[in-house]
Write a structure and sequence with these properties.
455 residues, 7-stranded mixed beta sheet, Deoxyribonuclease I, Chain A, alpha+beta, 5-stranded mixed beta sheet
Length: 455
């Protein structure tokens, strides 16, 4: 369908024709395009900004007629189309493409309390100092994005923040459980993770990149309002501009993919972009940065090097008249801690939708009181990175919403694994810690507890 010619079936903006009876059984009317089954539809990349508004209005009118008998008047809150490839950098994240039927926006205007997000490149060789900095910042941050986190530092931070913030670890930039991580921590009393993903941005040497790079994504749902916030965290390559360009393109595509599959109220993309976040990444992602302090760069060694940023979709509100990043001291790291406060408006669909809790895991400690060396199982990390865990671990803590299965293996038949027990939310359960753990069990697994659907 063409925005200026609804009956067109070829050319830019065309969609396959179908009778209105395809979407409204029994109705008789002119031939209208069939509703797309997914966001990867004929609109993808074929609509220029100059006709976007007209197309949205045209499709909206068409859908209102086609579905008049199935949905109340005004139940379509709006239709939007994605701009052409050459214009996607201008408004990519603002274009939700096709929206499904929803209740009127007037019924959905529930705003969150301020959400504080912080991003911090810990510096890979400053692990002990980084734990202290993150611990202090966690008292005032709902969402924390970290970069250059080595495995030992990752375990220590996760153990330190376990009572307040749950991580999504994802894959390291090298893959598996070696190298550097870019985890996302979120206040687990306030949020639950309903979807997670990790994507590869580039390999070492690809497009001149100095290191392999990843990006992590978590769709968070605020428990009180139901507001959903899609969060991305990454550390782009420091050698190659082309690799950074490719990385941002892949991040943009993943943000769009998730927005097509889940109700998303707002988007946050943060991290260390290794170029000015406002000029480089915000423009390409169609998101908005905040004002920097011109006298205090986020990358300490070079005035004007504001590599670290927290970019947000244009539907969020700032808590201050002048939206400005808060820059705070990070200790020996070569990057400062960057923070930003936002307010999100919850959509009625998100509040009503049944969303499965997706992020879960356990910490395995070699001290009976949950202290000492910590191993991570789950939270997006590879399974059982230490196969000899039962020789070292004496206590286990499991995240809320997860169950842990402990198994005993027969020495004569190593392929046989018998589930020995299933325990839910082991945090503080001293009955399951101590010598019996490593003497009895040789294998454990963690899985989420199915969330009951609303009545």
């Amino acid at each position: 369908m063409n925005a200026l010619n609804p009956n067109a079936t070829t050319g830019p903006g065309a969609m396959s024709g179908a009778s209105i009876t395809d979407v409204n059984a029994g109705a008789t009317a002119a031939v209208w395009p069939k509703l797309p089954v997914s966001c990867e539809c004929a609109l993808n990349g074929m609509v220029d900004n100059s006709v976007q508004e007209a197309l949205a209005r045209s499709i909206g009118d068409m859908l209102s007629m086609a579905l008049a008998d199935k949905f109340p008047k005004g139940s379509f809150a709006g239709i939007a189309a994605r701009p052409s490839p050459e214009n996607q950098t201008r408004a990519a994240a603002d274009s939700p493409w096709i929206k499904t039927p929803k209740t009127p926006l007037a019924d959905a205007a529930v705003k969150t309390e301020p959400i504080t997000i912080s991003t911090f490149n810990t510096r890979y060789d400053q692990g002990e100092a980084a734990v202290g900095t993150v611990d202090r910042k966690s008292a005032s941050s709902d969402i924390i994005l970290l970069q250059e986190v080595k495995p030992d530092t990752l375990s220590n931070i996760t153990s330190t923040l376990f009572d307040t913030h749950q991580p999504y670890v994802g894959q390291s930039h090298s893959g598996g459980y070696t190298g550097e991580f870019s985890p996302i921590y979120y206040n687990k009393e306030r949020f639950e993770a309903v979807y997670t993903s990790s994507i590869k941005l580039n390999e070492k040497g690809e497009l001149g990149a100095g290191s392999p790079r990843m990006a992590n994504f978590v769709l968070l749902r605020e428990k009180e309002t139901g507001a959903t916030v899609l969060v991305s965290n990454t550390h782009l390559d420091n050698f190659s501009f082309d690799a950074r360009e490719q990385g941002v393109t892949k991040i943009n595509a993943e943000l769009h993919r998730i927005r097509c599959e889940f109700p998303v109220d707002s988007v946050i993309a943060g991290g260390d972009f290794n170029m000015n976040a406002n000029i480089f990444a915000a423009h390409r992602l169609g998101l908005d940065g905040a004002d920097y302090d011109p006298t205090r760069p986020t990358y300490k060694s070079n005035l004007g090097s504001d590599f670290d940023g927290i970019l947000v979709s244009r539907d969020v509100e700032s808590t201050t008249t002048n939206d400005r990043y808060e820059i705070s001291d990070s200790g020996p790291s070569d990057h400062e801690v960057v923070s930003r406060d936002i307010v999100v408006t919850a959509n009625a669909d998100a509040r009503k939708a049944h969303l499965q809790v997706a992020n879960h895991g356990a910490l395995l400690n070699d001290g009976i009181d949950y202290t000492g060396k910590t191993l991570i199982l789950g939270f997006g990390a590879p399974e059982a990175q230490n196969t000899d865990w039962n020789d070292e671990i004496s206590s286990v803590r499991v995240s809320e919403g997860a169950s842990l299965t402990a198994k005993s293996r027969s020495q004569r038949d190593p392929d046989y694994a018998k589930p020995d027990t299933v325990t839910t939310n082991l945090k503080g359960n001293v009955a399951w810690v101590g010598a019996d753990v490593n003497d009895t069990f040789s294998e454990i697994g963690v899985s989420s507890i199915p969330k009951p659907k609303p009545v």
